[in-house]
């Protein structure tokens, strides 16, 4: 006897599909079904008595005996798809590892069970740590959100570990989200050293078998700790007892293509559906999180100092208006020398990779720009190429100016590569370790660099923001920050928030151990208010002022935004398409949502596509979502255009 089942399929459509099914099948199981002329994998959502459609086709094969997605995770995925107005089939199937999405059997392949020695902890928790641990454990059977706000090195990870130890003993599982892949090995080893359970990681650098295994071990309860980057939020974890989000302020929790979600924001719903506590941790809470604290939605737990003898580093400014050097000022070099002579490690932070950001003609001012993007080409010396950091295209640099034919081409400005070269001339006997996307592309490279740093021998680290996050280098005593002025001058209303977070985070790298560290920031704007707060490590106070400014200007987190972005090879088509969308939006009667645009994107042309944006904003989140929902119901009137691609971004961060 056939029944009718409703199936989600990964297609960019907001509906689901009905099929006849001759087999016994569970909700959340994968099935193989005919779709058009293809055979695709779908997920069973419901059994039905009747369908609105006739001539239903039949399920070809049931791939899972039980459901692979539990009711709880299905509910959560539905909620997510609904909130981000993204097609449910794409959301459900993108939550599965590729092997399972392609219909491969859901069995663990490589049963790795390496014996390991636990390293017991030999210190007592501080008073503040104990308060935090007790608070979280007290609400272990209820949804409650906590923020551990503690300076870097104040012992947040220790709190995660102790709470996890307790919950594991009760048979619960713990999900830990970290912003970057680079941070997972370090976090994993800290958990592996301490907790008696299988720790699995979920991130993009694993191979497909590893990903599937980790997913299945989380799902069958074998792994007690599941540690991963943003996509790990969608892992089915039957005995989930706690969600931890480390470095919650980090923008990497936001997925910026396809299904655009924020894992940090979704964590609240994940914990709510499971009725368990949520623990956000950071030294520099995002303004949204601080507003949640003010609104009473989050309980703030403070770790006010570093345990033991470690103290916060002193922060000094170097006024670049009084310096002749373009990158390495004399006071900076002198301080570096002081620390290196004392057998310490130093780090320089510059948020630009490559050799130099400008390649230009000194005669006629011609500048090398990408043919396909509105962007300057960056010179990379080790490969002798000009590279576009937007579309990835590269070419050999010209030997004479393409405009005036003079041999007067030069580079201007500094990236990590040029800084490295410069440092080698100042400090010929000290190893310089450069850490950026170019030097860490290979899987093992980053780990190798970290090993060298952890050996503790004097060295100079040069890096981009990859280095700013979470790492615990015990011999690092001095941090120099080179190009902050771009952030001070930016038009993006989030720039100062991000810069303050970054400066506090990089400062946190210095002096993690007994010796006090030092931070030097080079700037041409030493009187900017941000610095007086950073000098006092007064992030909260500065964040408080920024929050007030946002409230006055009615910007997020005091308003909610959505962005509709269209792009096309034809400039007019993208703009015209957004004007059609605008008409539909304006025909829907919801007044509290402001709409502006279409306006060109910050970089109008990327890879030969022109980008246009339409911004929606409201102080009422419900209204904004009602408008978007109604819009999607009226979307058939949009004239389909093959030449225009578009997407919606809810709570955009760019
Ligand atoms: P965070 O996660 O806030 O950066 P960690 O938890 O990594 O801080 O702690 C920083 C260092 O201090 C680690 O080496 C950790 O082992 C140590 N530590 C943490 N808590 C204590 C404590 N109560 N007493 C002594 N050392 C501690
Ligand atoms: Zn020229
Ligand atoms: Zn380009």
Annotation keywords:
654 residues, alpha/beta, GIY-YIG endonuclease, Rossmann fold, 4 domains, globular, binds zinc ion
Describe the structure.
The protein has 18 helices and 27 strands. It has 654 residues and is α/β, with parallel strands linked by helices. It folds into four domains: 99 residues, PriA, 3(prime) DNA-binding domain (GIY-YIG endonuclease, 3-Layer(aba) Sandwich); 177 residues, 3-Layer(aba) Sandwich (Rossmann fold); 179 residues, P-loop containing nucleotide triphosphate hydrolases (Rossmann fold), CATH 3.40.50; 91 residues, Alpha-Beta Plaits, CATH 3.30.70. Strands 8-9-7-10-11-6-12 form a seven-stranded parallel sheet, sandwiched between helices. The chain has a six-stranded parallel sheet with strand order 13-23-22-14-21-20, with helices on both faces. The longest helix has 17 residues. The site of adenosine-5'-diphosphate (ADP) has 15 residues, from α5.
Number of domains: 4
- List the quaternary state of the chains: single chain
- The assigned CATH architecture of the largest domain is 3-Layer(aba) Sandwich
CATH homologous superfamily heading of the largest domain: P-loop containing nucleotide triphosphate hydrolases
The overall strand count is 27
Total helical segments: 18
Could you give the distance between the termini? 53 Å
Q: What structural category do the secondary elements indicate?
A: alpha/beta
Mean pLDDT: 91
């Amino acid at each position: 006897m056939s029944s009718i089942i409703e199936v989600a399929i990964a297609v960019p459509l907001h509906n689901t599909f009905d099929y006849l099914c001759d087999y016994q099948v569970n909700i959340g199981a994968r099935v193989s079904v005919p779709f058009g002329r293809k055979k695709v994998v779908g997920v069973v959502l419901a059994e039905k008595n009747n369908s609105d459609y006739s001539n239903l086709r039949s399920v070809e094969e049931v791939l899972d005996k039980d459901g692979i997605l539990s009711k709880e995770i299905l509910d959560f995925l539905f909620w997510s798809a609904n909130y981000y107005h993204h097609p449910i089939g794409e959301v459900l199937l993108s939550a599965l590892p590729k092997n399972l999405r392609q219909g491969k059997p859901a069995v663990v392949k490589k049963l790795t069970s390496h014996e390991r020695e636990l390293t017991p902890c030999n210190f007592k928790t501080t008073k503040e740590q104990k308060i935090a641990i007790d608070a979280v454990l007290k609400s272990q059977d209820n949804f409650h959100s906590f923020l551990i706000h503690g300076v870097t090195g104040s012992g947040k990870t220790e709190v995660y570990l102790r709470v996890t130890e307790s919950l594991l003993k009760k048979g619960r599982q713990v999900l830990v989200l970290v912003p970057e892949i680079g941070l997972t090995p370090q976090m994993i080893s800290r958990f592996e050293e301490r907790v008696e359970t299988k720790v699995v990681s979920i991130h993009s650098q694993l191979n497909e078998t590893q990903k599937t295994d980790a997913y299945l071990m989380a799902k069958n309860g074998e792994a007690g700790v599941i540690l991963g980057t943003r996509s790990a939020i969608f892992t089915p974890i039957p005995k989930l007892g706690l969600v931890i989000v480390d470095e919650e302020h980090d923008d990497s929790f936001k997925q910026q293509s396809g299904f655009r979600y924020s894992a940090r924001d979704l964590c609240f719903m994940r914990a709510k559906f499971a009725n368990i506590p949520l623990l956000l941790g950071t030294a520099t809470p995002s303004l949204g999180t601080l507003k949640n604290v003010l609104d009473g939605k989050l309980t703030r737990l403070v770790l006010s100092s570093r345990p033991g003898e470690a103290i916060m580093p002193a922060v000094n400014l170097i006024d670049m208006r009084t310096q002749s050097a373009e990158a390495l000022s004399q006071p900076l070099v002198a301080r570096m020398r002081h620390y290196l002579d004392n057998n310490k490690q130093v780090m320089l932070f510059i948020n630009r990779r490559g050799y130099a950001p400008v390649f230009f003609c000194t005669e006629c001012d011609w500048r090398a720009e990408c043919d396909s993007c509105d962007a300057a080409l960056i010179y990379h010396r080790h490969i002798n190429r000009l590279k576009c950091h937007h579309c990835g295209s590269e070419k050999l640099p010209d030997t004479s100016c393409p405009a005036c034919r003079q041999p007067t081409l030069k580079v201007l400005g500094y990236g990590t590569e040029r800084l490295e070269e410069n440092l080698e001339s100042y400090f010929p006997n000290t190893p310089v370790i450069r850490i950026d996307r170019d030097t860490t592309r290979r899987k093992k490279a980053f780990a190798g660099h970290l090993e060298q740093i952890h050996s503790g021998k004097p060295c100079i680290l040069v890096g981009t923001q990859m280095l700013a996050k979470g790492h615990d280098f015990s011999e690092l005593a001095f941090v120099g920050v080179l190009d902050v002025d771009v952030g001070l001058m930016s038009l993006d209303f989030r720039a100062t928030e991000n810069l303050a977070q970054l400066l506090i985070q990089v400062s946190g790298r210095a002096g993690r151990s007994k010796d006090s560290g030092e931070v030097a920031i080079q700037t041409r704007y030493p009187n900017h208010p941000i610095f007086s707060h950073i000098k006092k490590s007064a992030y909260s106070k500065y964040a408080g002022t920024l929050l007030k400014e946002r409230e006055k200007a009615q910007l997020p987190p005091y308003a909610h935004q959505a962005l509709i972005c269209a792009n096309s090879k034809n400039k007019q088509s993208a703009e015209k398409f957004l004007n059609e969308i605008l008409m539909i939006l304006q025909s829907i009667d919801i007044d509290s949502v402001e709409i502006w645009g279409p306006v060109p994107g910050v970089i109008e042309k990327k890879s030969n596509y022109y980008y246009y944006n339409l911004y929606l904003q409201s102080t009422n989140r419900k209204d904004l979502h009602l408008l978007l929902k109604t819009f999607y119901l009226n979307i058939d009137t949009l004239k389909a255009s093959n030449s225009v691609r578009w997407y919606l971004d809810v709570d955009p961060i760019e």
